[in-house]
Amino acid sequence: MAAAVEFKATTPSFADLIRRTDISFAVGVLIIMVVLLMPMPRPLMDFALALSITFSVMILMTSLFIMKPNEFSSFPTVLLIATMIRLSLNVASTRLILSHGHEGTAAAGKVIEAFGQFVIGGNFVIGIVVFTILIIVNFVVITKGSGRIAEVAARFSLDGMPGKQMAIDADLAAGMIDESEARRRRKEIESESNFYGAMDGAAKFVRGDAIAGLLITFINIIGGIIIGVAQNNMSFGDAFHTYTLLTVGDGLVTQIPALIVSMASGLLVSKAGIEGATDKALYRQLSAYPTALGMASFVMAAMGLLPGIPITPFIILASLAGYASWNSYQEQLNVENKKNLDQHVKDTDEDKKASQQATTPVITLPLDMIRLELGYGLLTLLNGEKNRQLGEQIKNLRTQLQQEMGIYLPQVRIQDNMQLGNNEYVIRIKELDAGKGYLKPGDLMIMDPRAEPITLRGEHTREPSFGLPAMWISGSAKADAENLGYTIVEPSVVLTTHLTEVIKDNIGELVTFADVQKLLDDMSETYKKLLNDVVPGQITVGGIQRVLQNLVGERVSIRDLPTILEGIAEACNFSRNIVTITEHVRLRLSRQITFSNADNEGVLNIVTLSPQWEQIISDSVVGDGDARQLALPPSQMQEFIFRCNETYDRLAMMGEMPVLVTTAYIRSFIRSILERVRPSVVIMSQNEVHPKVKIRSLGQLE
């Protein structure tokens, strides 16, 4: 008894097997394979055909009501199963038709007979034509179109994956999303790519199914007539009537589910970019333009008035379209009124809150673009002879930079700061620290141009602009320093030199919208036509501002503003990306850039990038067109920075500061790497080197 109880507890029942979906699915697939090989009774054939039609309708309805294509990610598998079901039923029905067709039109079951009688209606030509049309619609129109959409969607989904992944990483790094959300988005992108890739292949199932249906139909008709006449002693007319009716019925009962599944496939792959269920998305988008519905109503009403045209259907359709247009307009009007009412209530509440609060005046203090703060001991630099006063030197500096760079520099505000040490100073750009240093007003700074140790007595220090070894000596030792060939610099010159370099390093931030507008307004009338063609049709003043900021950020003068505008106009014809536009403008300014970096003898000293580094950086650029980005691994980036510093430090010891020359494809990316660690290095592309300049190579960045 106990053994029997134990056996009963461990033996699965039929209900348990049904609940095991994995076993049920495997059994279903095996049944499909069995149908391909074993004969099927007619009642079971009727049930299987009804099941095939129901299954296809269920697939279509699911495709209509899902919100996103990814929600039906199992569709390629479902499509394969539906295709195998139809093909197995085709084989089974063919066996019944060829084996029992001589018995009458019910040889393959009532479903096939009903479909044949309903479509043919006593006319074989009509049945064959209708069946052929269904094959053409399924094979040529729906299947081919949905297959093409799936192919393009798969390609674009795969191409867009790196950009989407980088966008997720950027949001994660910025703290906009957490790790779980980033993981969910990556999973969604991967699922979308896999889905469209599978749909691209699954479309071939439908196409093959249509071809197989056509061949099976041809085989059934020819084979049935031969079997009926040769083996079953039927007349040719009776054989043709019976087997044609059975074959067309069989073809229709399998091609209609195939057509439904093909339509579901087309709806699914064409749903990309549509949010929500298909019916809601279509209604929302079609009703968004009442004018379009109104014009359609007018056209249909006008067509109904043409001579010979039946007026009733056109007037009915025109009335429905007109009502839909009026209803859509009323809905939009109600939404706009509600929005205005909500905004009015919100403004009223804000006014009440503002009136209840204390009316404290808010004073917006102007922002100092450039500010120099001096310790108490450095205030003496503001006095002395006129041409040696710090204020006068800074004024001359601004004039020189304006003439050199072609921009309007803001005034430098000088003020004391008691929180600094007596001999300290701070340079602020937009009230943020940009440089600081230490001066001795009564002494002189000396440096050895040969980079050798200084032998005079004094206080060792470093020159604040470039970090070179230097020394403070007393004024009485000036003659000794001159005899030894040292470079002698006064404290005010040290400060103005440091201020100059800080302004040049941050000059891009000093190019304001107002400055750019003033530059454009001050252009001569000769170039006003060019300016009107460019702004605002091709680019805004803000876009020009960003281009100019990029140029002066690399210490490229913008005095030749007409040439810059010509370059912007040319670049806007093929791109709206600011970096791409800037690179094209640099090509137009190649002569200016080249000779401004040449030495007094007109020779351009260069350092080239090794082919290995060119290849590494080129291979690290991801994306196409304006979406290109550099994805260089951190280890290789650190190695590149180290090699660059090593090369330029060695050349600096020799008194050289060459230009780094690379290809145009990666020039902007090299600049983005070095501008943080060595902003003084000038980087030019090979296309920017003017052909008339003399070139002297000082080595290669290995």
Quick description:
The protein has 702 residues and is an alpha/beta fold. The protein has helices at 2-10, 14-19, 21-37, 42-65, 75-100, 110-120, 124-159, 161-173, 179-230, 236-269, 278-286, 290-304, 311-356, 390-405, 478-483, 491-505, 507-510, 513-521, 528-534, 541-553, 561-571, 578-588, 590-596, 611-619, 634-653, 667-674, and strands at 370-374, 412-416, 424-429, 432-438, 443-447, 459-462, 469-474, 487-489, 603-609, 621-622, 629-630, 659-662, 683-685, 694-701.
Furnish the topology, listing elements before pairings.
Elements: H1 2-10, H2 14-19, H3 21-37, H4 42-65, H5 75-100, H6 110-120, H7 124-159, H8 161-173, H9 179-230, H10 236-269, H11 278-286, H12 290-304, H13 311-356, E1 370-374, H14 390-405, E2 412-416, E3 424-429, E4 432-438, E5 443-447, E6 459-462, E7 469-474, H15 478-483, E8 487-489, H16 491-505, H17 507-510, H18 513-521, H19 528-534, H20 541-553, H21 561-571, H22 578-588, H23 590-596, E9 603-609, H24 611-619, E10 621-622, E11 629-630, H25 634-653, E12 659-662, H26 667-674, E13 683-685, E14 694-701
Parallel strand pairs: 1-2, 9-12, 9-14, 12-13
Antiparallel strand pairs: 1-3, 3-4, 5-7, 5-8, 6-7, 10-11
